[in-house]
């Protein structure tokens, strides 16, 4: 029988609140993405109402915030299961959720309605700090730090009291690093090189070290849940990935220090370590696919029911294995050597990589968590994909891959014309912008963006209704 709204733990109910806001912000991200994509083609679209710079800022901030929400939600979801006890101080955790959500709402309203301020400290404090991806004003920064400290305290105390698992140990230490790094993006220097130097501590060290480790832990948890993977095997992979990710990800930071005025030794350090970064991503890829195949084989041998417990979550987990490897590993590796990066730096090639990496490495696995939560909410033993589940994964993936291909072609054209042929001058930039290949790519990006957005609506519908799928098996 289907249970209504009956999470086993209050912590998991709280997780579903975080997931709900994450989905809303994901939708907002796509909507703003479409606005920016239209402005590339018709520059007067919403001019002076929601300018390119503002719409683009909201597009990428919404992405960072929905992913952080989904990550916090994921921790609150798996915490009671891993530790075997209710989240300690769940009442305070719920209060913090409302404070954070109120703050995010105010920040977004200020972005939309006030947009810019005078060139003094009041703007940094009240409107925007102007640091790409983490534009939130200083008051919100401080608020975020307080809320995150509360979240860390809840997680830490629960882990100490309950059962200890490898997955929880990794998540806990990773969360401390993730929160600590945010501080590097908070202080202000008027030297742009120094500012960029520290800004990358948040941006690069987040996505290429702490977020990736988090994804490793989620993949481990997800595989145990969804295909009943052997904990010892997935945790062994997890430790290997953690060691490799930190090894390459931290010094890989050098690939952002090539041209911002930092010493030249970063060329060698950045080239070597960032080139090693795809290795742990291969590990994660193998981790997902190998465990999936192995469990299937083992269960088939014992005659056990080998079907997955949650087919939509499994589809998204597998797409995470591919997406992370392709978007971060391959598209990242393409432009990571300084000899290549001098031509590709800041072209649409970067945007191609940015889209496929954020989507492949993070959106996919967080969506898998949404499905795991839906399964938990309704007490479903085996959750079965619906037509909408399949349309969602197909259209979203097809759309993002399509955008990536379009942007890769645009970047290639910029490299050849603006950089190689015309020497990378200001004028060369505009000549390259006027080429047919650029114009076509921008059209295709918009079309593929629409495809992605249609997929999103299928996803939202599916998350709300999949519990009623007659093929589901109930406990
Ligand atoms: C999931 C992990 C990753 C994500 C989410 C990600 C995302 C991004 C984004 C959004 C940017 C653009 C930053 C900006 O606005 O300036 C960027 C830049 C860059 N990424 Fe990644 N990345 C990831 C992993 C990697 C890996 C593993 C490599 C190398 C093997 C790599 C190589 C680079 C390079 C070289 C740049 C600079 C591009 C330029 O010079 O314009 N990335 N990344
Ligand atoms: C409706 C679908 C989408 C459209 C139309 C769209 C469009 C755009 C546009 C026009 C930009 C500005 C690029 C520039 O400044 O040259 C942008 C930036 C960006 N978008 Fe999207 N986007 C979409 C979905 C996504 C998704 C699903 C993700 C990741 C999960 C994402 C992540 C990013 C990132 C990281 C940047 C900054 C890239 C950089 O600085 O290199 N977008 N997007
Ligand atoms: Fe990086």
Query: Which structural class do the helices and strands define?
Result: mainly alpha
Classified by CATH, the class of the domain at 307-475 is Mainly Alpha
**What is the strand content?**
under 5%
Query: Which sequence of SSEs, written as H and E, runs from N to C?
Result: HHHHHHHHHHHHHEHHHE
Main beta sheet, described?
A: 2 strands, antiparallel
* Rounded average pLDDT: 94
Parts with pLDDT < 50 across at least 5 consecutive residues: none
The strands making up the biggest β-sheet line up spatially as: 1-2
Q: Helix share of residues? A: over 70%
3D structure, described in words:
- This protein is mostly helical and about 475 residues long.
- The protein has a domain at about 305-475: Cytochrome C Oxidase, Chain A (Up-down Bundle).
- The chain is about 75% helix and about 0% strand.
- The chain contains 16 helices and 2 strands.
- It has helices spanning about 10-40, 50-85, 90-115, 120-125, 140-160, 165-180, 190-225, 230-250, 265-275, 280-300, 310-335, 340-345, 350-375, 385-420, 425-435, 435-465, and strands at about 380, 475.
- Strands 1-2 form a two-stranded antiparallel ribbon.
- The longest helix has about 35 residues, at about 190-225.
- The model has no long low-confidence stretch (mean pLDDT about 95).
- One protoporphyrin IX containing FE binds next to α7, α11 and α13.
